[in-house]
Specification:
By secondary structure, the chain is an alpha+beta fold. Helix content is 37%, strand content 25%. Strands 4, 5, 6, 7, 8, 9, 10, 11, 12 and 13 form a 10-stranded antiparallel sheet that branches. A 3-stranded antiparallel sheet has the order 1-3-2. The protein is elongated and about 100 Å long.
Length: 283
């Protein structure tokens, strides 16, 4: 028999690991000297350690290895091994996807393409808009509470039996990006006011516009592009800009009673039209 140090060298397994195997009942010493408390292992234990190391190389947990070491059932061995094969196949697919993704990023670097694509912006243009009847709600809120304000607007519109007639629109009367707060007015185009308070005309006229495809968190890029274009074209901004949510969390055809986010659309697919009122009579 071999003392634990020599046995450790033969099996290429640390003494600490052998002691741990003993603690969990996976591999007991062949003999423990009652006087010195030294541990000794025979040749049969070498085969067991080799079997443990083999199964560990398959990433099989020690709890399952203990079952296999103690079992003589072919069915149990096959069951555990087949389960592990299925698990590794899933990991293999995930690893292959990761490798493919890495190659794609390397290719983008070589071609000087941004790793994370930015939003898509249309060309800037001037649009003459008509007056629109709207039902509106205005509050000073945390920007993260925007969803709740949308729900409040739709709930009130449903309560007043208003009929929606266009895309949800927002006007930010004041916005503090550092504090994540805003004085925001939400406007819902409607068919008829029905004498309802909170309805107002969103005045038409000439607007500088662009369409922004991407998440709402990056809309500031669209505003900057449009404002720069207005300056370049010697136009004069005459009022606050507005955001028209053409495609996003709120679909254009919606049940006012049961407003729900459209989780099937990725934020990168959101379509928002930014419009800024202008005077172009002095161009």
């Amino acid at each position: 028999m071999y003392p634990i140090g020599r046995f450790s060298e033969i099996c290429n397994t640390s003494v600490k690991t052998l002691r741990y195997y003993s603690e969990i009942g996976l591999l007991e010493p062949s003999y423990i000297d009652p006087v010195t408390n030294y541990r000794y292992y025979d040749d049969e234990k070498i085969q067991i350690v080799n079997k443990i190391n083999l199964l560990k190389s398959f990433q099989i947990p020690l709890t399952s290895i203990k079952l296999l070491i103690e079992s003589h059932s072919k069915t149990q061995w096959k069951s555990i091994l087949e389960y592990k094969v299925a698990e590794l196949e899933i990991q293999k697919e995930e690893i292959l996807k990761q490798i493919q993704g890495i190659h794609q990023v390397k290719d983008q670097i070589d071609r000087e393409i941004p790793i994370i694509p930015g939003p898509e912006l249309s060309s800037c243009y001037i649009e003459n808009r008509k007056d629109i009847l709207t039902f509106s709600i205005r509050q000073c809120i945390k920007i993260t509470s925007m969803d709740q304000l949308v729900r409040d607007l739709f709930n009130q519109a449903y309560a007043f039996n208003l009929v929606m007639n266009g895309d949800l629109t927002a006007i930010f009367h004041a916005r503090n990006l550092n504090q994540r707060k805003a004085d925001v007015e939400l406007l819902l185009p409607i068919v008829d006011a029905n004498g309802t308070e909170g309805c107002r005309i969103l005045h038409g006229g000439a607007y500088a516009c662009l369409t922004f495809k991407g998440p709402y968190s990056q809309l500031e890029i669209g505003y900057q592009r449009l404002e720069n274009w207005i300056l370049q074209q010697n136009l004069i901004q005459t009022g606050l800009g507005m955001e028209i949510y053409e495609k996003g969390l709120i679909p254009s055809q919606v049940n006012l009673k049961d407003i729900r986010p459209n989780l099937n659309i990725s934020p990168t697919e959101f379509m928002t039209k930014i419009c800024i009122p202008i005077d172009h009579s002095h161009r």
